[in-house]
Description:
Shape: globular
Number of strands: 17
Strand content: 5-15%
Amino acid sequence: MDIFGENVFSDAIMRERLPKATYKSLRNTIEEGLPLDPDVAEVVANSMKDWAIEKGATHFTHWFQPMTGITAEKHDSFISPTQDGRVVMEFSGKELIKGEPDASSFPSGGIRATFEARGYTAWDCTSPAFLKEDGGVLTLCIPTAFCSYTGEALDKKTPLLRSMQTLSTQALRLLRLFGNTTSTRVTSTVGAEQEYFLVDKKFFDQRMDLMLTGRTLFGAMSAKGQELEDHYFGSLKARVAAFMHDLNIDLWKLGVLAKTQHNEVAPGQFELAPIFGTTNIATDHNQIVMDTMKKVALRHDMVCLLHEKPFAGVNGSGKHNNWSMSTNDGLNLLDPGKTPHENLQFLTILCAIVKAVDDYAELLRFSAATPGNDHRLGANEAPPAIISVFLGEQLSDIFKQLQNGEVTRSLQGERLASGVITLPAFRKDSTDRNRTSPFAFTGNKFEFRMVASSQSISGPNVVLNTIFAEVFSQFADRLEKATDFDQALLELLKETATKHNRILFDGNGYADEWVVEATKRGLPNITSTVDAARVLLRESTIELYEKHHVLNKIELESRYEINLEQYSKQINIEALTMIDMAKHKIIPAAVKYSTQLANSINAIKSASSAVDASVQEGLLIDLCSTLVSLKTNLNTLENVTQEAASLTDAFDQAANYRDIVFKAMAALRIDGDKLETIIDSELWPLPTYAEMLFML
């Protein structure tokens, strides 16, 4: 309790330090979405500066989230010169509200040319400022949005804030229809469970692939992987427990509600989950979590890997985006209550969400599309690339009742029958969970399980907020015109439950049969980031985002270009890294070992023609034939990578990297991994999977 939030310019700090009128005005902006008074900003800036200096900070930065997916910051000191050659510590309202970073050096998708450098960061007062520590140095970080000189969003934060605004507006329209006159704001809330790997730094430093790409491009399977299922929820190793302790301390100081931690399925894999927070703050906090994980790991001589698939053959990492909605007066709009069949407001919102996921499944799939995530979606370790909704027994039964036009019951959970008298008796939940579902209802929230472990959760939540706002808008348009509200509502719910039943699936999402069944239902199965990006250029997507003022056509086109460009760049880096490792690590090791074998064979035969050297000869033949194959595949990869890099159309280039370069990489890896199983371990130049996964 003493350390939580000590490095955050929190509500408690503002209440203590700001004049009452200033504090009240700022709270109105934060809670009601009212415009910010410039005079308020001046007072807040001075108070924020004093607080930061007292803590030991000398610099401030506008902390923003460009389209790179990570955060960015440019530091300025508080000092200003005086006429007598001294300095004073100043921080004005203007400096708080506006910053001016170079907009041309961040991904813009053509919005800004190289020579057009001006961009602006604008203070997001709804997310608290905080002090970030690097090497013992504290810097005041001010969460901001990032826009171009011409007004387009160049970041992840701006569209997120826009989507939260429209969600509130449209959700309130529905609430008014059900007689709610007290709630004035609806806010989406998120809890982002973060999966990650830890490896010993000495192994990381010997792996160029981990250093440059975040994943192993070569590596034969360990004799043991995750097949014994002995790592999941297992006891923490001392070194990992110490890391988690320090991680929690650092996060709690920054006001991050880190709550749950445990071993994940794969060896060397772990998870951290926070308590729910307002979506934009939760997004900021998840960026802080990822950044802090990396820094704390280094203090423990480890490296945190956030790539979705750092090790082939074992489970990769994702990020479970738990999404819900709450009113400003404390109502969780996804709480079904004890008798959800009687809760018509909840059923209306539930039907709207199901319809939105069905109508905009391809947009939702795109929101979780990254090059790394292409490795894991549908790989029996993550939800399939097919979007579906899991409601569980209780709500699925209610949905069937809605299709019949009358809802009369809610299934209830039975008492747990453990068979042990001394165990406490309690009632089970009304439904089981489904870990294979990409979008699952889990009590009072939906869990979007497809999100990639390394990506910002802003993109997925922009889509969720926007598509739900759209269907809320459609429902409100229809119900507001109704002469008989109750009858119109029942007709709407029946129609929605019947028309969108195809998106509901409570079974095994990993099963091959589901792929066949989904095809019959007409559900899209988009397996790559390249194909997923196309939805951004669809006319219906542009109309959706422009209607709700979340993104305009230019901003959508820029994101299409950025996503394809980032895909191509990532695969290109991986291909070049493989080429380098094959040339300078694997081939020299193979040549050295083949020379040793040849010398051994010659020495044996010189000593006695009667001695059998067939084992050495067999090894040499196998080694040399694999080496020849590797060199052939290496030449192929070099050629196709050069060809792909020369293409100019963004989609054609990305498709080429996916269809040709990536396949050439896979062929080269087969030879490289086979050589690892042949070459003397003393000569093999790379840390093995067994070492990296089990030696923590």
